């Protein structure tokens, strides 16, 4: 198989995608440096084969946040001021800000509002009902 090809017979990520689907907050995040597949509390896989894993995750129904097209200032604002996604653990109570854990849908909505591609999550508001801390 050639590097970067999207061969539908390639199932190297299937087991981890299944674990991510079974984990609250499990998702795939893609940025300028590659991808991170969050599949359990404290467990993640990082890599650079972004198009292959993105297609597999979308097909499987796993939430995907692709922020590669975001303006760098937006990435910095979201990363430094926004909450982290609670993966395999309950989110912190609102308000959510830096160094807190929030539900996947809330963080994904903030990324979508900034212009990121978000798959397998419904559109929804980015605001935190407990107060906005710059997300």
Detailed description of the structure:
With 135 residues, the chain is an alpha/beta fold. The protein contains four helices and seven strands. The protein has helices spanning 14-21, 50-60, 72-81, 104-114, and strands at residues 27-31, 34-40, 43-47, 64-66, 84-85, 101-102, 117-119. A hairpin with a 2-residue loop joins strand 1 and strand 2.
Oligomer: single chain
Total strands: 7
Largest sheet: 5 strands, mixed
Q: What's the overall geometry?
A: globular
For the terminal residues, how far apart are their CA atoms?
41 Å
- SS-based class: alpha/beta
**N-to-C series of helices and strands:** HEEEHEHEEHE
Arrangement of strands in the largest sheet? 3-2-1-4-7
Please mark out the parts with pLDDT under 50 across 5 or more consecutive residues, or reply none: 1-7, 128-135
Mean pLDDT, rounded to whole units? 89
Write the layout of secondary structure elements.
Blueprint: H1 14-21, E1 27-31, E2 34-40, E3 43-47, H2 50-60, E4 64-66, H3 72-81, E5 84-85, E6 101-102, H4 104-114, E7 117-119
Parallel strand pairs: 1-4, 5-6
Antiparallel strand pairs: 1-2, 2-3, 4-7
